[in-house]
Amino acid sequence: MAAGVLTKGLCGFRQPRIVAAGYSCSGPLYATATAVKTLPLQTDSTAVTDKIQNLPLETPDFFHLSELFSLKDLFDARVHLGHKKGCRHRLMEPYLFGSRLGQDIIDLDQTMAHLQSALNFTAHIAYRGGIILFVSRRRQFGHVVESTAGDCGEYAHTRYWQGGLLTNAPIQYGSGVRLPDLIVFLSTLNNVFQQHVGVRDAAKMNIPTVGVVDSNCNPSLVTYPVPGNDDTPAAMELYCRLFKMTINRAKDKRRQMELLQGLSPPGLTQGSS
Amino acid sequence: MAGSRLEKFGTVFTRVRDLMRSGVVKQSDKPIWYDVYKTFPPMKDPLYVRPVAKRYGKKEEAVPDIFYREDENRAKFYEGCGTGPRAFDLSKSSFVSTCQRFVEKYTEFESQGELEKQSLFEETGKALLAEDLGLRRRGIPAVASETRNPVLGMKLTDMLAEQQADAPGGTRAPGKEKPTQVPLNPQ
């Protein structure tokens, strides 16, 4: 049975965070139970926490993510290769550089900018302790995606997506379920080349999405689309590596800031990283 | 917690912003991503785009074809030599294919500017052949580097006839006989 995010918790740092045992990913192999912890209320340090929370927003690239990738890296990983002209989606036309003998070539300059924006958003969400869900219905890369999610302490869903996963979560998983704060689609299509249900459902549940959109995908509902190839193993490994490094960086930074400000030791690390 | 499930109207951000503005969602229940989105919005608003009916009339080319000036030379190469003798090794980013070397040589000769158009092609072909790439024209078999052993072209009957002509006189032994078994003629 497909499993989503099952951590029980309350949003907001002012309230005590109670996290019940939850399971990540799908299937019994990836069950990582998060410990039951209760952080004490710290009314005197809310101002400090506020400051920590909002400090990264002042710099455009607080986590120095532009040094993680370059245009050459994208080219070598074959990110610029799209599908054939006949498969092209109308809405992807602005992101294409041209078509070489019928094969669409994605404009890597635009991809660089979009990727920077997407990684930055992911980093900020991870910094604030948000839950990130990696989704990909490509069976070839299921393992890569799941191991990436495990490595950065976040969650992945690479199996069959049950219809009410997000929209009917309280019934399917019990009341008080905490839904993901960000969904990262490493491929926005499902196995029959239609848009993944998760894209529409995330928009319904007001959850922002980051998605790698190939030349046959619909980028309209994805909050932070990243035009790029989603079929080559090299490209997928590049994306997974970038997301993993971004999230780890953001979480490390958060721990560092909390230690510097002298708050109680960081209690809520979701899984090991 | 209240929400708005209308993904076809506005963006995720506008819906949450309006819910907060109207007081349905309290400030304390503000989603984690709200401030981040406000500070770093995406380049294009993620508005839902309705699928439009098929466009009639002449479709203007929104995505241009990519062609280079060297493509003419590449076409000539492939016309003359079929697919090149060497397979493409795309795992190396610095790989130079036979066609690419042809094109580079061609542009080199062209920039020197001494030869005229017709001979350029010939000259490039000759230059590459000199570099021993194993190029060959389509339809013309490859030139062998070693000549066929002339012994293989000889016929046994001719050899026999020669032998008999050499051997003194008379015996005209019929049929094929191996040269080593020439009967001793009683002299």
From TrEMBL, chain A:
Belongs to the universal ribosomal protein uS2 family. InterPro entries: Ribosomal_uS2 (IPR001865), Ribosomal_uS2_bac/mit/plastid (IPR005706), Ribosomal_uS2_CS (IPR018130), Ribosomal_uS2_flav_dom_sf (IPR023591). Required for mitoribosome formation and stability, and mitochondrial translation. It comes from Oncorhynchus mykiss (Rainbow trout). It is found in: Mitochondrion. The keyword Mitochondrion applies. The keyword Lipid biosynthesis does not apply. The gene is LOC110523371. Its main location: mitochondrion. This is Small ribosomal subunit protein uS2m. Pfam families: Ribosomal_S2. One of its GO terms (biological process) is translation. GO terms for cellular component: mitochondrial inner membrane; mitochondrial small ribosomal subunit. One of its GO terms (molecular function) is structural constituent of ribosome. Keywords: Mitochondrion, Ribonucleoprotein, Ribosomal protein.
Automatic annotation (TrEMBL), chain B:
Pfam families: MRP-S23. Belongs to the mitochondrion-specific ribosomal protein mS23 family. It comes from the Eukaryota. This is Small ribosomal subunit protein mS23. One of its GO terms (biological process) is translation. It is found in: Mitochondrion. The gene is LOC110504068. The keyword Mitochondrion applies. GO terms for molecular function: structural constituent of ribosome. Residues 2-131 form the Small ribosomal subunit protein mS23 conserved domain.
